Amino acid sequence: MSAETYRDAWGIPHLRAATAGELARAQGRVTARDRAWQLEVERHRAQGTSASFLGPGALSWDRLARRARLADTARRCFAALEDKDPETAAWVREYTDGVNEGLAACDAPEFARTGLAPGRWEPWTPLAVWLATHILFAGFPAKLWREHITAHLGPDAVALFATDGPGTAGSNGWLVSGERTVTGHAIVAGDPHRFIEEPGVYQQIHLSCPEFDVVGLAVPGVPGIAHFGHTGTVAWAITNAMADYQDLYRERLRRTGAGVEALGPDGTWHRAARHTETIHVAGEDSVEVEVIETDRGPVIAGGPEGLDDGTPAALSLRYPPRVTADLGFGALLPLLRARRVADVDRALDAWAEPVNVVQAADTEGGLLHRVAGRVPVRATANRLRPVPAWEPGHEWTGWHTPPRAGLTDGIAVMANQRGPATPLGVEFAPPHRADRIAALLAGKERWSAADMPALHTDTHLASAGPLLDLVTALDGLSPGAAALRDRLLAWDRHMDADSAGAAAYAAVRGAVVRHLAAHPVLAPAAVPPAYPEVLQPWLALVPRIAYALEHLLRAEDPYGIDRAEAVRAALEEVAAEPPAGTWGDTHRLAPWRALPDTSGSPEPGLSGDHDCVLCTSAVPGLTDRAARGPAARYVWDL
Fold this sequence. Notes:
Blueprint: E1 4-7, E2 13-16, H1 20-34, H2 36-47, H3 51-54, H4 59-67, H5 70-84, H6 86-104, H7 109-114, H8 125-134, H9 142-153, E3 170-176, E4 187-195, E5 203-209, E6 212-218, E7 228-230, E8 234-240, E9 247-250, E10 253-256, E11 259-263, E12 269-279, E13 287-293, E14 299-302, E15 314-318, H10 320-324, H11 332-337, H12 341-348, E16 356-362, E17 367-372, H13 380-384, E18 387-388, E19 411-414, H14 432-442, H15 452-456, H16 465-472, H17 479-490, H18 500-518, H19 541-547, H20 549-554, H21 563-576, H22 583-586, E20 617-619, E21 623-630, E22 634-637
Parallel strand pairs: 2-5, 9-18
Antiparallel strand pairs: 1-2, 3-4, 3-19, 4-21, 4-22, 5-6, 6-7, 7-8, 8-16, 9-15, 10-11, 11-12, 12-13, 14-15, 16-17, 20-21
Protein name: Penicillin acylase family protein
Organism: Streptomyces vinaceusdrappus
Keywords: Hydrolase, Zymogen
């Protein structure tokens, strides 16, 4: 039986085949026809060849991909998969064969626009795409920020900024057991928050063969349905656990006649692997990149001569798939075959990265709330900052047992806050999204699937409290600022696109962030170390202040900053030049596109904000535009 494909009224592909292998080939073929350009972009990103058609703006990413050895790691992981799990390896091969068949017949206009032709996918390419998509997911560059702010304010300042920021992907997820639903069966719902891309990072799809029948959200370029799926009798979904599972090591490197050596924790210089690669850059000369790997891992910044500014530093990155040659693809087929939560649970024992909190439920009343993924056991210092490779005590000594959690009053909520993964992480999201979802769910005894969109789109902003508390206490304001203060205090604290009050609050908040960033205490931290451009978002002062504003306004030690005066100055500034419209006038979508948009169509205005359940993330003090937000929404009704 050949694969059958039809599309429903929404254009969602439904695929059916006689075997899992034939179905994987069909999935690859359909994905290539629907997302040919996206697959080409992702293949280049995974290989570190994006600059060859996107130009110098992509060069920093390509350097990281080459130096971190993403493609080589994917090759290693696939080779290990062939040895340990040949069924899954064959299934992945079928998928890539389907991708190549689909690309051969594609007519995506972007290829004509750029003069490119689709490249060939190798069996390891899906693993490289997965790795490239998630290598920055755990936010290891935050360790560089902690070191940077410690140098300026001391170690106690680290806690002020210990919150997820613009570089980290998050999600909302909630599980409502059958005792709290109108049907007596569980509901799993939520939304992943990622950088919004065109086309999107997820693809709705239905896969059916005699072994399984699954609907869900696939990652284009990766077979199966990994993150969000429903097999008819069991459904699962994930949120980012905010775990720390990647380490940065400071390396002492030296050149010798034979190559490069690194000083190890045993006090001995050890030979490091070294070679050079060439990155082609559209419109410019090619660039040569030196790739070095020590016993800790690939060197991603600096080298024997230090950083670009001459600072004597080199950083190596240690990440689980590079160490274990296992990317967790062995979980993908068992997830599709799952019939009960016990099956999902067993499948997730093979999960590697990213480290997630998983919620699942089945039609027999089974429930699951656990962490899935591989987190190394090592010294606490490793989790906080780059550690010296030449000192003993920073090695990995095993793997943490993934924690589990239960439900409270028939409900489990995970929105990247401190929860079951707390022992595994450092920086978590503030509790506002999770608390709001839990409060809304507590407001009614029985829930239905049709009720869930109201939770997905809730715009209440609890994190406005600290700033509004300071606004309340101000006196001696100009008439305009006093009127603005009264307007803010009357605002309902909902970040709705049509709200003028939300626009006024956002304007004051942004001005407060800028005033704090300009304060002599914090301003010196605006000059970041000379790390690669791709890591700079984690080192930028204004975004760091923006996302830590709540902490900074409530901290017991203000570091000599008169916060009330900063708020006063911001209020006067905005009163003198108030926003003319609503929140949606400036809070607009800013999607990432590989090629510039030539349509001329304005991007839509958005409701929500970073700490709302409707998590559309602007960067206060820098821009109201939102590059991150819900990349998909799901409601799984058992």
